[in-house]
Amino acid sequence: MNIDDDLEKLLNNLPFFIYQHLSSHSNKEKLIEIVLDLGRRPEARFTTGPEYLSQKIISWQDIDYITKRISKFSGENRAGIERTLHRISCIRNRQFLINGLTCRIGRAIFGTISIIRDLLESGKSILILGKPGVGKTTIIREIARVLSDEMEKRVIIIDTSNEIAGDSDVPHSGIGRARRMQVVKTELQHQMMLEAVENHMPQVIIIDEIGTELEALAARTIAEKGVQLVGTTHGNCLENLIKNPALSDLIGGIQYVTISDEEAKRRGTQKSILERKSYPAFQLAIEVNQLYSWTIHENIENSVDLILRGNFYVSQTRNLKENEKIIIQYKKLQKKFLLKNPQLLHKERVPLHDNWSLVSETSTVGPLKLKNTNLIIYPYSLSKNLIREILTKFGDKIILTTQIKQANLIIGLKKHLRQNFRLKKLANRQNIPIYTINQRSIYQVMRLLQFFIS
């Protein structure tokens, strides 16, 4: 595992008494950040713990010396050093003068994502969770290099604070052949995400620190366009996202629903329960517990559903040892209610797809039987243009009908079908399954039809 940290370039911009101490420090490869506060002794924070660097206290002159040798601070009070990955953040007083600096060490660690190499090759969108300072940015930097150099994919990085590719117009070599789009203001990150898709035809988009509702919505839009996403957000685990209203859309969104007495009795729950609202923007989630100890959720949909039912523990953990040996451990899911009622295990309803769901309760007709017959579809509340495009794409493989009795499948818009009890009653009598889509999208309809005819 190779490490490129350009530490000397950062130390050269510090006052001599700090440079002298750190340049000869025996533990400098484990340095995380240097903290310089006015009127206090300079402090270095290592992975092993903090340490004072000098008896001398920091003065205005020391802070001024550093700020004049680095780039200008942005609106987020962050600056950098040309062609490096280091980040310098400032603290200001009420007169807007800088009275504190945090110098964060940026490193490109080659080989750090060998622990999840198989997940990258799957082509699924990956969400990385972890508390600040655990190494999320280092991980996605290496992911960008592997995807662009080794897998030869078109990768675009949305670099809001220049942390991923460095503080320069020329990106750091740590991202490989990946391209970098800089963001002028943090609040414009969601616009840059969409612009990247529309203008530069990426196969993969990488985003660091998704933190607002607009950014979560942009991530969902990108996922619907068929682009692979790799993103990070703050949080120790999936439960943190479920409790965060602004970011819950990343994992499908959460809503309260009221179920019938019979269903509540079957599930062993109250009538008002929490359920996932729709499909997640990401398929995989990685919880970075420590630098080389990660928890993997191979299917976010199932993980979130189980968490909401109150019976989910840990699915998979991966650890990278010093000899670069990867240890993968599986822990059994403990389904408290279902283990007490084993006869219900086969009755648990699982979403068929993230874009559409089965509405009717028919049991004799299902996806497996439909695959072996001609598809005769009754479209409900779908526009003529959408129907015309469906016929163009599938040709003779499907037949559209205006007679419900002739159909063996009904497809319609969810919000319209929800109100039509007469149609649902007729379909139930004729044993015709009804599938709903969330919006009038040719992509959603095509994915549904491919499920039956492939």
Automatic annotation (TrEMBL):
The gene is ycf45. PANTHER family: KINASE-RELATED (PTHR20953), P-LOOP CONTAINING NUCLEOSIDE TRIPHOSPHATE HYDROLASES SUPERFAMILY PROTEIN (PTHR20953:SF3). Keywords: ATP-binding, Chloroplast, Nucleotide-binding, Plastid. The keyword 4Fe-4S does not apply. This is AAA+ ATPase domain-containing protein. GO terms for molecular function: ATP binding. Coiled coil: none annotated. InterPro entries: AAA+_ATPase (IPR003593), P-loop_NTPase (IPR027417), PTPase_dom (IPR058670), Spore_III_AA_AAA+_ATPase (IPR045735). Residues 122-261 form the AAA+ ATPase domain. Pfam families: PTPase, Spore_III_AA.
